[in-house]
TrEMBL record:
It comes from Saccharophagus degradans (strain 2-40 / ATCC 43961 / DSM 17024). This is Tryptophan halogenase. The keyword Ion transport does not apply. The lineage of its organism: Bacteria, Pseudomonadati, Pseudomonadota, Gammaproteobacteria, Cellvibrionales. GO terms for molecular function: monooxygenase activity; nucleotide binding. Keywords: FAD, Flavoprotein, Nucleotide-binding. L-tryptophan binds at residue 344. It comes from the Bacteria. FAD binds at residues 186, 335, 348. Transmembrane segments: none annotated. The active site is at 78. PANTHER family: FAD-BINDING PROTEIN, FLAVIN-DEPENDENT TRYPTOPHAN HALOGENASE.
Length: 503
């Protein structure tokens, strides 16, 4: 079997250059050439500016210095997401990263807490035992690596970052690792003439031909390779998730930097706020069936703190994924593979998963169908897991104050989500899956926020000494609050440790 000799990546931006960086860090670029083709004439979407904790693992695996990266990308830290007005108006809940433990496994803690709640003993909220939630509430931050052996040692964090600066940083990293960059627009994709076409080369407008053994499509929603050339069909999930447009605008930096993304429900969708060191990212994700572009833009602009720095930009999209993310000798990565609206900041993660799984199933030039099938099955599981998690934010709402929310409230759930929620109601946990992004902690915070709770606590908890357990939980809560008060504010931590010099 002939090994791959050349991999061609079509498209730059955060996705393309992240793929290039991960590939160049994992393969011998003297044996396998990696060439990225992009055009300065074609803009990038550039709104994937909020990440999840596995992104930090990716940076570490590349050997990238975290402080240097934060400074270069004007990043801030992210402990989770605050959701406002989702269950009903004027109610807020928080989805934290990391676990809530109180010195025990989280499932036991949750059932001990449920026991107290069901007995009318409401001395705490469940997230009072989450280090990230307590830090976020006080707008304070210290990385778990800086406080080993304390109650913060199990916290996890991600980053808010400037997508344009991330692409620039990763481009430099990848090129230093041996990736070749070619400027140009694709005029034609040349494929083999047989019953199962393969991509042979890219013909650029300049007349240059880019040959390759394997192609990675990072061309965004256009999906020039996996969609247009190889005709991998698209599964539309708009029935479950009706938002299909976003209007975005940048505004000046906030006077204080909250260490979390804020997602505020609006009448026809929701609005995000992402605080960076030098500016703030804002957007309104909405369903065009229920609101016009002009109305959505006005809603966004009237709910922004501080002066705007850019003109509003409309981005249409369709939620769904390719039936075959890997077809023949090509994979789609990022928007070319699929898109799930940005409610839980999963766009960069799914792109990262796409290339990480490709490295796991790394083929010879013949691209064995067994590898392709396994890759597609795993990516489908990743996308559907995230899809279900996001659907629940909408479908469990108690709001009925607009046609949009009435639709979301009455939408039929996928069978997989029904199974997950029914299991949660029975056990306070979720079924085990292969490498999930959202583990039990995330589902517990979401279900609590959306008023979904088991009808009874675990019978096993009857074996615990309730009085002693309650005292332990109260002590932990007080210790956690006290510890968090001793760490710096999020803004102060950045200024002291990783402030960008180019703000």
């Amino acid at each position: 079997m002939k090994p791959l000799q050349k991999i061609v990546i079509l498209g730059g931006g955060t996705t393309g250059w992240m793929c290039a960086a991960m590939l160049a860090n994992s393969v011998n670029t003297k044996r396998i050439n990696i060439e990225l083709v992009e055009s300065e004439q074609i803009g990038t979407i550039g709104v994937g500016e909020s990440t999840v904790p596995p992104f930090m693992d990716m940076l570490a695996s590349l050997g990238i210095d975290e402080v240097e990266f934060i400074q270069a990308t004007q990043a801030t830290f992210k402990l989770g997401i605050q959701f406002k007005d989702w269950l009903k108006k004027d109610e807020t809940f928080f989805h934290p990263f990391g676990r809530a433990e109180a010195g025990m496994d989280e499932l036991s803690l949750y059932h001990l807490w449920l026991r107290a709640q069901l007995n009318g003993d409401t001395f705490s909220r469940f997230l009072d035992y989450s280090p990230n939630s307590v830090m976020a509430q006080q707008k304070r931050f210290a990385p778990y690596k800086a406080v080993p052996g304390t109650l913060l040692a199990d916290s996890r964090y991600a980053l808010h970052l400037d997508a344009g600066l991330v692409a620039k940083y990763l481009r430099n990293f990848a090129q230093q690792k041996g990736v070749k960059r070619t400027e140009g627009k694709v005029e034609k994709v040349n494929t083999s003439i047989d019953t199962a076409p393969r991509i042979l080369s890219l013909q650029l407008e300049s007349g240059q031909t880019i040959n390759g053994d394997f192609f990675i499509d990072c061309s965004g929603f256009r999906a020039l390779l996996i969609g247009d050339a190889l005709q991998s069909s698209f599964t539309d999930w708009s029935t479950y998730l009706p938002c299909n447009r976003a209007v975005t605008v940048q505004s000046e930096a906030l006077p204080e930097l909250p260490p979390y993304t804020k997602a505020t429900a609006q009448l026809a969708g929701w609005q995000w706020r992402i605080p960076l060191q030098h500016r703030t990212g804002n957007g309104y994700v909405y369903a065009s069936k229920y609101i016009s572009d002009e109305q959505a833009t006005q809603t966004l602009l009237s709910n922004i703190q501080g002066k705007t720095l850019t003109e509003p930009r409309i981005i249409p999209f369709t939620t769904g994924m390719r039936k075959q993310v890997w077809k023949a000798n090509c994979i789609g990565v990022g928007l070319a593979a699929g898109f799930i609206e940005p409610l839980e900041s999963t766009a960069i993660h799914l792109a990262m998963r796409g290339i990480a799984e490709f490295l796991q199933q790394f083929p010879h030039s013949d691209c064995n169908p067994a590898l392709i099938n396994e890759y597609n099955a795993r990516l489908q599981q990743d996308y559907e897991e995230i899809r279900d998690f996001i659907i629940l934010h909408y479908a469990a709402t108690e709001r009925n104050d607009s046609d949009f929310w009435a639709y979301c409230k009455n939408v039929d759930w996928p069978a997989s989500l029904v199974q997950t929620v029914e299991y949660f109601k029975a056990r306070g946990d979720v079924p085990r899956k292969l490498a999930p992004l959202f583990e039990s902690t995330s589902w517990r915070s979401l279900c609590e926020g959306m008023n979904i709770r088991p009808s009874a606590y675990s019978a096993f908890i009857e074996n615990a000494d309730y009085k002693a357990s309650k005292q332990h939980m109260q002590n932990y809560k007080q210790q956690l609050v006290s510890l968090v008060k001793q760490i710096p504010t999020h803004k102060a931590f950045i200024e002291q440790n990783c402030a960008s010099s180019s703000k």
